[in-house]
Amino acid sequence: MRAKLGLEDGTVLAGEAFGHPGEKAGEVVFNTAMTGYQEILTDPSYKGQIVTMTYPLIGNYGVNPEDVEHSRPWVEGFVVREASRIRSNFRSTEDLDAYLRRSRIVGITGVDTRAVTKRLRERGALRGVISSTDLDDASLVRKARVIPPMEGLDLVPEVTCRTAQRWTEVLRGDALMQTGDVRPRFRVACVDFGLKRNILRCLVRAGCDVTVFPGRTTAHELLDFKPDGIFLSNGPGDPAAVTYAVECVREVLGRAPIFGICLGHQILSIACGGRTFKLKFGHHGANHPVKDLATGRVEITSQNHGFAVDPASLEGRDVEVTHRNLNDGTVEGLRHTALPVFSVQYHPEASPGPHDASHLFVRFTRMMEEARRG
Fold first, then answer.
1. Which is nearest to 235 in space by CA: 289, 161, 166?
2. Would you kindly state where each structural domain of the chain is located, as residue ranges?
3. For residue 329, with 0-12 CB atoms within 10 Å meaning exposed, 13-18 middle and 19 or more buried, which class applies?
4. In this structure, are residues 87 and 62 in contact, taking their beta carbons and an 8 Å threshold?
């Protein structure tokens, strides 16, 4: 079955449909990871986006129930150069095409993904439409041009949990296990803006008893829980639009240690008086170098964000930049100079990607230990 990808700048690329037949629209971005397509598909931070994989062969190791980051895939669409017809992995339970069909995710294969990536790098992230039902070039471009831009969109309500719930799963080696004999030392309230499961596993493994709260949880509700620490998760959309979360974080600053990742980092920055801005084409991949300005150490990180913190907006605040992206110099980490508060723009839980920054979860537990001692 034929399919096409139409972009708002007039570009139209033809290919073959795979996954669920139909039509989907969203902001088109590219991801440079060589593996981890299942984790990428199920990352809620991709809500509202069509993901193009730069690695040319996708699907060769199939899918399995362990490598998911949420209960379902969240991408709007999936663009690949070649969708493998062969899956080879001892953990594989299903091929990628069947998984996308079952999950109702529209995909297109046979596309020149290098051309897509080059166009996005030149023009910036573009709105687009994948369709196997409408193959008229002009119609696809018109549809792409009326998609709401990512700026101003609050997508958290679409991906957050509905009620508070305790998390009990931990990753050991290659196996998912219940916490069992893991003895938690800290009571952590995790605010779910579009949370990846491996973040929770890392927190549990570091010694945290984690309860996940919906994104619209108030400061009063968080503090009533009497947490040793508060964690702010990743998520989709424009951080400046998540005003209720910013207000909540402002009210809990100084009341408990806080650790934020990705969208949580951006929300925390705004709560401290900063501003965010839209990146030209975002950071999406598992190979981004980040420098720790305090130690000089460089870590290779997993990233997925389309917005960044404006460092000039932090001048004169009680906040300092702790990490920088070595590709474009953007802010990758912050810490409060007077309070036990820090955040990073990248993903120390990886999944997919390197584990260079996993020590940050231990840093969070040490911060809670110090706060407990007074």
1. 161
2. 2-145, 156-373
3. exposed
4. yes
Query: Is 262 an active-site residue?
Result: yes
From 359, 340, 243, select the one nearest 297 (Cα to Cα). 359
**Segment 305-350, tens digit of pLDDT:** 999 999 999 999 999 999 999 999 999 999 999 999 999 999 999 9
CATH architecture of 2-145: 3-Layer(bba) Sandwich (3.50)
Look at the pTM and tell me if it is higher than 0.90. Answer: yes
Is 16 a residue of the active site?
A: no
Q: What six digits make up the tokens of 112? A: 């020149």
In whole angstroms, give the CA distance from residue 218 to residue 198: 25
> Is 39 an active-site residue?
no
The model's pLDDT over 76-115, given as tens digits with 9 standing for 90+, comes to 999 999 999 999 999 999 999 999 999 999 999 999 999 9
Which of 190, 202, 208, 262 is catalytic? The answer is 262
Helix/strand/coil for 197: helix
Q: Quick one: which of 244, 237, 325 has its CA closest to 276?
A: 237
CATH architecture for the domain at 156-373: 3-Layer(aba) Sandwich (3.40)
27, 69, 299, 349: the catalytic one is 349
